[in-house]
């Protein structure tokens, strides 16, 4: 399955080489052209000579994780995080660098902790990675400062409709764009697979200046806590379709355009929900501000336990995201003429 293939690959910010290569292989033969820019964004064009609206589809390739910052005399490894909270780290298995050196995130055993220590989340300076090395010199045979650290977590299907995997944010968006590129759409599409979104939307800042689309649709994984929160506090619900953004930390989406997406969903009987929060930011911000201002629509698949190695999504939400994007791409010009 495409999502399994993409989520099982490691691709942290500035180390997106492997996931980019996998995406290139998937879309080869389904696009007119593609290139990788100097920062690492993969940009592909389908139906380049088609008349009418030019639609940009964007998703980011990178995932949350960690990076090696120091190797102790003992051989234990200290690290920094990218988009990961310390509270989810303890006892997790990891793979370090291109060689996938196995390790475990550890800390002082609970038996040795003082009562105040047990009552708080351990900070990063008290956590380390153990690769089984006996000394700094031994560890340096396998690991170097600056190596990325990815969670060791494989794709699994749970129950009838759920998927567990790391990097659902945003390999779901990447997979959806790949499916659209493989389908017989009639508009000109430029697909942008961005780098370094998780460390400040850096890839899209570069890509936005290279692509002159009439409108962008940015595809993401987004927050979902539907088992925990009361209904009126829920940001999204799984099984109710992709989530449409109205506002977030980096963008205010224009009503004229998200109304088009709402109508498209209704006309095609595709479930759609609202993302009911202004928290978080996406690559949409950079597209909004490009070329004198470009309209953007933000769609996302609700993901429980996002930014962890065990995020969960609903396959039906993903399938409805793909169906909605295909329908929107094929009907966008018709919508704007009304």
Describe this structure in words.
This protein has 338 residues and is of the alpha+beta class. It is 25% helix and 26% strand. The chain has helices at 2-7, 17-27, 115-118, 136-139, 168-181, 202-207, 255-267, 284-288, 315-337, and strands spanning 33-36, 42-46, 54-60, 65-71, 77-82, 93-96, 101-106, 128-130, 148-151, 156-158, 162-165, 188-194, 215-224, 243-245, 273-275, 296-304, 311-314. The strands form three sheets. Strands 1-2-12-3-13-16-14-15 form an eight-stranded mixed beta sheet. A hairpin with a 4-residue loop joins strand 6 (93-96) and strand 7 (101-106). It is globular, with a radius of gyration of 21 Å.
Question: What's the count of strands?
Answer: 17
Helix content: 25-40%
Mean pLDDT: 91
Q: What is the beta-strand fraction?
A: 25-35%
Largest sheet: 8 strands, mixed
**What strand line-up does the widest sheet have?**
1-2-12-3-13-16-14-15
Structural class, judged by helices and strands?
Answer: alpha+beta
- How many individual helices? 9
Q: What's the alpha carbon Rg, rounded to whole Å?
A: 21 Å
Ends apart, CA distance between termini: 39 Å
Inertia-based shape: globular
- Low-pLDDT stretches: none
What sequence of helices (H) and strands (E) makes up the elements? HHEEEEEEEHEHEEEHEHEEHEHEEH
